[in-house]
Every structure is written in structure tokens, then in C-alpha cells.
Amino acid sequence: MLRHRVSTAFLLVALLFISLYYLSHKSFAVLLVPLIMAAGREWIRLAGITSPMMVALFLVLQFVGLSVIGAMVNFFGDINVVTGQNILLISILFWLFNILTLNDYPNSSTLLSFGYVWTVIGLLLLCFSWLAALCIVSLPNGKELFLLGVGMVVFADVGGYFGGKYFGNKKLAPIISPGKTKEGVIFALFAQLPLFFLFSFFGQTSIGIVYYFFLALSAVLLSVLGDLFISMLKRNTGFKDSGRLLPGHGGILDRVDGLIIVLPFYSICILMRPL
């Protein structure tokens, strides 16, 4: 299991580097569309939608949503990151609602029964994540900044996994995700230190150390919330994993649950960061 998990992770990292540095920022964004659509298919499944016709309809609507957002930020011209930033602010409202639902679980399980509503919310959030990635990689040093944001979530996942596995004792959310521990969160925070030194060593950090650790702290806490939210959806519908596309990891959502919430916030902070 661990061997499959590690080998899949290395393959995903290699694909990320190759696509990010050998493609233009727009080609990279286009390459992300099938990934977003696959994650959308998994979200529909977790929302309890089983009708093939409704699944197809929602996927078409998701593609339309991506197209509309792309048009709003002038995808075929110079990307309007200011418009993108304003659109991304809307995602914060959706995530506040999601976090309130998460905090009230299992009392909120009745609310989760409205599958169509949660499907629309989920597909919108995935579209916002795509927009966040597009806005970041469109910046002059956007590829490095995008890697840094993804790295924060990846290092948090790795630190949280090993910290929880070998030192975990105090459960974080036993009803939703019994494997999550408070010790894992602490290790996820400390895992941001080697990431900072790694990027500093290669001269790829264009943000100050104070702002970096603000972003890192936010990324860790938000990625935990994103992970718990997807876990809540899985528990509510009786699924162990969101899918089976990635050996050792489960589905796309199982791997990017933290990024869905982190990327929009990270993008807004990068666009508004002090110079």
C-alpha cells in the first residue's frame, strides 16, 4: 500500500514538473481541465447522484462553468488576474458555508442529503480552483509560486501522515476521520520548514519569510479543513475513497482535497501580497 502510494506520488510530481515547465501557462491550464472534470465526476458521486443523465448534465454544466470563467478573465488574451481575484473572493463564502456544515456534523447530515445543491457547490469550487491555478501561473514568476503553493499542501500531507501514523494519539475529528490527529497537524506545520529552505536554496522565494509562514500556516489549516470536508461527504454517502483512479491514493479528490480550498485563498494572498 505504502509502496503504491509513494510510486504514484513520484509519478504525479514528475508529471507536474514536466507539464508546468514545458508548457505555456495557458496550455498548462487547459491540461488541468480533464483533471478538474474527473474530480467533478467524483464529487457528483459523493453527492449521491447516480442517474447517468444527471451525471452527464452536471459534467456539461461544469465544462460550461470553466468556459464562462475563462472568458471572464480573457483566457485568449492577457489574463485579467484582477477579475480572477474578484471571482475567487466568492469561493470564500462557499467555504465558510462548508466549514459551518462540517462543524455541525453529524447534525448537518440532513442538509447533506440535498445532493443537487452540494453537486453545484462542489463543481463551482473545482472551477474556482482551476481559476486560482490559472491566475497564479499567469504571473511573471507564477510557475515557482504555483509549485510553492502546491508544495505547502503536499508537505503538510506528508508531515501529517507520518506524524499521525507514528506519534498520533489525540483524535482531531473522530466521527468524520478517525485517522486524523492533532499531532499530525503539528507535524504538518513543522514540515513547512524544509520546504522553505528548499525553495530558498534554489532562490525561488520571491516572498518574505514572515509572509511565507503566514501562507504556510494558512495552507496547513485550510488543507486539513478541505480534507475533513471531503471525508465528511464520503462518510455521509458510505464511500471509503472518492474513486480508484490513483493506486494507493484512491481518487482525484482524495489527492487534491486540500488544494481545492487552499489554491483560491493562496492565489488571493499572492495577488495581494506586499511588494
Strand content: under 5%
Helix vs. strand class: mainly alpha
Number of helices: 10
Categorize the overall geometry.
Answer: globular
The biggest beta sheet reads: 2 strands, antiparallel
Query: How would you spell out the order of helices and strands?
Result: HHHHHHEEHHHH
Using DSSP, what is the number of strands?
Answer: 2
The termini sit apart by 45 Å
Low-confidence stretches: none
> How many distinct folded domains?
1
Radius of gyration from the CA trace?
18 Å
Compute the average pLDDT: 89
Strand order of the largest sheet: 1-2
Helix fraction bin: over 70%
How would you portray this structure in words?
This protein is mainly alpha-helical and 275 residues long. It has one domain. Strands 1-2 form a two-stranded antiparallel ribbon. Helix 4 runs antiparallel to helix 5, helix 5 packs across helix 6 and helix 6 packs across helix 10. The longest helix has 29 residues.
